[in-house]
Design goal:
Blueprint: E1 3-7, E2 10-13, E3 18-25, E4 31-37, E5 44-49, E6 56-58, E7 66-71, E8 76-81, E9 90-97, E10 113-114, E11 118-123
Parallel strand pairs: 2-11
Antiparallel strand pairs: 1-3, 3-8, 4-5, 4-9, 5-6, 7-8, 9-10, 9-11
């Protein structure tokens, strides 16, 4: 069992920045990811990182603006979000998996442990 908790959401104007944080309690090295769910839409993958902090992948919509990183010593995941747009408004979820490779950006993958989510609102 992995316990996941996000923090750092908030409201910002378009063009601004936010950094999300996520802590995950696990006895093994874990891979992690960020997902988001815009109002009225399905949950979608944003970015993922493997357990070795070597490989990452991003959704096309956030490439060049968002950066995922992980401090393994602190079991903490970050998502630095720059140049935010109104369409980035969503409930952002952190997810963790005990699988070591680069995980899929698939919210339906059965190996995820989920946090409760943190709201990000971007106004124009």
């Amino acid at each position: 069992q992995v316990h996941v908790v996000e923090s750092g959401g908030g409201s910002v104007q378009a063009g601004g920045s936010l950094r999300l944080s996520c802590t995950a309690s696990a006895s093994v090295t874990i891979s992690m990811a960020w997902f988001r769910q815009p109002p009225g839409k399905e949950r979608e993958g944003v970015a993922a990182i493997d357990s070795y902090n070597v490989s990452t992948k991003y959704a096309d919509s956030v490439k060049g603006r968002f950066t995922i990183s992980k401090d393994s010593a602190r079991d903490t995941l970050y998502l630095q979000m720059n140049d935010l747009k109104p369409e980035d408004t969503a409930l952002y979820y952190c997810a963790a998996s005990i699988h070591s490779g680069l995980p899929p950006l698939d919210a339906k993958w059965g190996a995820w442990y989920w946090g409760q989510g943190t709201q990000v609102t971007v106004s124009s």
